[in-house]
């Protein structure tokens, strides 16, 4: 019995995905297992996975070559005029073009590189799906947080309205102040209804794009995101080593180079070898022979080689452009993470000061030391400050996670062992 339990534990340990030990869980993001499942079921990722199967088929096709055996057969009857003799002849032949060794090597290398291309396309699809998931997740989080804050604001203004009503009944405030408090409450309620609509739309959009994503009933605790500790060079090195878009461009450039080499090698045509058997004069004469066919190359082969070379040069320039764009995107993500963290800290500090002032003015109004207009202004400023701090917090968190995502430190993004895999 003990051995059975031990075996079960070992099996469970083996069944744990490798990424569980490499990627940490974050309290304000979907769990790693759920994120992985959601991303792998995204339509563009499923399409890219089918592309890998297509790449495997292309590799097998290129390694096998396009030359096939050809069989020829013929029957003829002839009549000898002088003797009137009727004779029957027939022939059969077997022919196949032979791929030159250099071409076979290039086809094999090209097939392997085509597979690498599709594998990196899968990783790039996972990366883009991850960006969509991260963006949609934080849109929903922001809208839900704003909804909750508007609910709290409505409750605060209801309490403020009750205070004004009591003062009016006691003769300590004019009826106009009650109307002002009622108007402020109605305006906040309008904002609450608008926030409900935005939150529902954000949730609906997230569910439509990622139907297997289970959204938590309660808002997850916001993680205290630190600013990027390493310098830009560190994140650039990390991002350039793992970026599937760049790997995809490199693979496409390599495919174009190999295609150009293959077109250049094809300027020398493949010979065809054939075996021919001929039976004449009703079988009294039999002929067996071997033959070689050598096509004579023309200008089309030279043009095809020049075209492939031009395409290879174009692919190399596209690779260089992608590399520059990836470097720029990582730099922007790094700077955004640093700036968003600083903005959040400033917004949080300002919100705390304004909220303390709001509480003081509300208390002063209750004591008859402050006018209602000043209190309502303080309430509005407090709400704006809280919203600004909340949104700055979400922006800082999203920027931090985006930097981790773009450098493959957030979620596993389908490394399939392609070229450049680390």
Average pLDDT figure: 86
Instruction: Give the strand content.
Output: 5-15%
Oligomer: single chain
Low-confidence parts lasting 5 or more residues at pLDDT below 50? 1-21, 416-422
> How many strands appear in the DSSP assignment?
4
Largest sheet: 4 strands, antiparallel
**How many separate domains?**
1
Structural class: alpha+beta
Order of helices and strands: HHHEEHHHHEEHH
Shape: elongated
The CATH topology turns out to be Outer membrane efflux proteins (OEP)
Query: If you compute it from the alpha carbons, what radius of gyration comes out, rounded to the nearest whole angstrom?
Result: 37 Å
Instruction: Count up the helices.
Output: 9
Mind telling me which CATH architecture this is? Up-down Bundle
Name of the CATH first level: Mainly Alpha
In the sheet with the most strands, the strands line up as: 1-2-3-4
């Amino acid at each position: 019995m003990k051995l059975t339990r031990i075996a079960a534990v070992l099996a469970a340990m083996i069944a744990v995905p490798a990424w569980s030990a490499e990627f940490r869980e974050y309290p304000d993001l979907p769990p790693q297992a759920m994120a992985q499942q959601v991303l792998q079921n995204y339509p563009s990722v499923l399409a890219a996975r089918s592309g890998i199967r297509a790449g495997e088929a292309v590799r097998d096709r290129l390694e096998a070559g396009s030359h096939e055996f050809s069989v020829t057969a013929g029957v003829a009857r002839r009549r000898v005029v002088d003797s009137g003799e009727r004779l029957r002849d027939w022939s059969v032949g077997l022919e196949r073009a032979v791929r030159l060794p250099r071409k076979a090597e290039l086809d094999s290398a090209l097939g392997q590189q085509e597979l690498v291309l599709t594998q990196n396309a899968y990783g790039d699809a996972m990366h883009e799906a991850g960006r969509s998931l991260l963006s949609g997740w934080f849109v929903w989080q922001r809208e839900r947080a704003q909804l909750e804050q508007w609910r709290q604001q409505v409750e605060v203004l209801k309490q403020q309205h009750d205070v004004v009503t009591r003062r009016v009944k006691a003769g300590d405030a004019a009826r106009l102040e009650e109307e002002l408090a009622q108007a402020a409450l109605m305006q906040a309620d309008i904002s609450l209804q608008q926030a409900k609509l935005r939150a529902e739309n954000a949730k609906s959009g997230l569910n439509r794009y990622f139907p297997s994503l289970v959204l938590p009933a309660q808002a997850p605790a916001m993680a205290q995101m630190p600013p990027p500790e390493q310098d830009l060079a560190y994140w650039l090195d990390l991002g350039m080593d793992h970026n599937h878009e760049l790997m995809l461009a490199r693979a496409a450039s390599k495919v174009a180079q190999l295609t150009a080499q293959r077109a250049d090698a094809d300027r020398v045509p493949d010979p065809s070898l054939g075996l021919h058997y001929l039976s004449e004069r009703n079988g009294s004469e039999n002929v067996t022979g071997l033959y070689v066919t050598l096509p004579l190359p023309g200008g089309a082969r030279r043009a095809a080689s020049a075209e492939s070379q031009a395409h290879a040069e174009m692919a190399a320039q596209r690779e260089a452009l992608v590399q520059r764009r990836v470097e720029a995107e990582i730099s922007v993500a790094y700077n955004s993470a640093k700036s968003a963290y600083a903005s959040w800290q400033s917004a949080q500090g300002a919100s705390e000061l304004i909220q303390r002032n709001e509480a003081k003015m509300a208390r002063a109004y209750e004591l008859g030391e402050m006018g209602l207009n000043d209190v309502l202004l303080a309430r509005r400023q407090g709400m704006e400050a809280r919203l600004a701090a909340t949104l700055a917090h979400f922006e800082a968190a999203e920027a931090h996670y985006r930097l981790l995502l773009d450098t493959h430190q957030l979620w596993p993004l389908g490394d399939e062992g392609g070229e450049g895999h680390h």
